[in-house]
Design goal:
Number of helices: 5
Structural class: alpha+beta
Distance between the termini: 89 Å
CATH class of the largest domain: Mainly Beta
Strand order of the largest sheet: 5-8-9-3-2-1-10
Radius of gyration: 25 Å
Number of strands: 10
Oligomer: single chain
CATH topology of the largest domain: OB fold (Dihydrolipoamide Acetyltransferase, E2P)
Strand content: 15-25%
Largest sheet: 7 strands, antiparallel
Number of domains: 2
C-alpha cells in the first residue's frame, strides 16, 4: 500500500514538473511573438569622459581625426564617438596608398553588422601609407584602450593643412564640440525610436546613448545618421 502511495506521489510530482515546463515554454514563446525586435544587452553608456583627445589632434565634423606625425605627414583615423557607437567593427576599408583624397569626401568604410558606415577625410592630400593591422580595440568597454594614435588607418601628406585646418576642431576646443554632438545624438536616437524598435534601448538609464547603439539602426536609420553627423562632401 505504501509502495502504491509513493508511486502516486512520484507520478503526481512528475505531472507538476511537466506542467511547469510547458508554462515556461509558453511564456518564452509568447515573449518571442510579442517582441518587436531584438533587445541587446546593455553593456555600458557612451560618456564624454571616455573620449581620448591627445595633444595636437584635429577633429573633423564628420568624426575623423588627424594627428601630426613626422616630416609633415598626418595620421588619420576615426574618433571614439564613432568607435564606441559602432560597437564591434568587423571590417575596415581604406583607400590604397597613393590615392589622392579631398577633405569631406568619403575616406573610410566600416562594416557594422550587415551595414556599412562611411566616414569622410579630415584633410585633403595623398595617402602615403595604409595601416594593415590597426589596433581598433574592438572591446565594447567604455574604458579607453590605449593611445588613439595606435588606431590610425591611413597616413596622409596634406595639400594645404594651413587653410583646411580652419574647418577642424583643435584639441583645445574638441571637448565642447563633442559635448554638443552628444546632445544632438540623444535627440537623434529619440527621433529614431518613433519608427524603429529603439525605445528604451538605445539610451541607458541616465539618458546617455549606449555603446553599440548604431547596430540597432536599420539601413535607412544609418543613412540618416551619416547625413546628420558625417557631412559627406560638406562643411559645417
Amino acid at each position: 500500500m505504501e509502495t502504491l502511495h509513493e508511486f502516486m506521489l512520484i507520478t503526481k510530482g512528475q505531472e507538476y514538473l511537466i506542467a511547469i515546463g510547458f508554462l515556461v515554454l509558453f511564456i518564452l514563446f509568447w515573449s518571442f511573438l510579442t517582441t518587436s525586435g531584438p533587445i541587446p544587452v546593455r553593456i555600458g553608456a557612451l560618456r564624454l569622459a571616455d573620449f581620448r583627445l591627445p595633444k595636437g589632434i584635429y577633429l573633423h565634423p564628420g568624426h575623423t581625426w588627424a594627428l601630426p606625425a613626422n616630416r609633415g605627414y598626418l595620421l588619420v583615423g576615426f574618433d571614439d564617438f564613432i568607435r564606441k557607437l559602432a560597437g564591434t567593427i568587423t571590417e575596415v576599408v581604406t583607400p590604397e596608398s597613393g590615392a589622392q583624397i579631398k577633405q569631406g569626401e568619403m575616406l573610410l568604410q566600416l562594416r557594422i553588422g550587415s551595414e556599412v558606415l562611411h566616414l569622410p577625410a579630415p584633410i585633403s592630400g595623398r595617402v602615403s601609407a595604409v595601416n594593415m593591422r590597426p589596433r581598433l580595440g574592438h572591446s565594447t568597454s567604455g574604458t579607453p584602450s590605449g593611445p588613439l594614435k595606435r588606431e590610425w588607418l591611413v597616413q596622409i601628406k596634406p595639400d594645404d593643412m594651413g587653410s583646411e585646418a580652419t574647418s577642424l576642431q583643435p584639441q583645445t576646443a574638441a571637448g565642447d564640440w563633442l559635448r554638443s554632438e552628444m546632445e544632438r545624438l540623444q535627440d537623434f536616437l529619440g527621433a529614431q525610436s518613433s519608427r524603429q524598435a529603439l525605445a528604451g534601448v538605445a539610451l541607458a538609464d541616465g539618458g546617455d546613448p549606449i555603446i553599440g547603439a548604431l547596430q540597432l539602426l536599420d539601413g535607412e536609420g544609418l543613412r540618416v545618421f551619416e547625413q546628420e553627423f558625417l557631412l559627406h562632401g560638406e562643411s559645417k
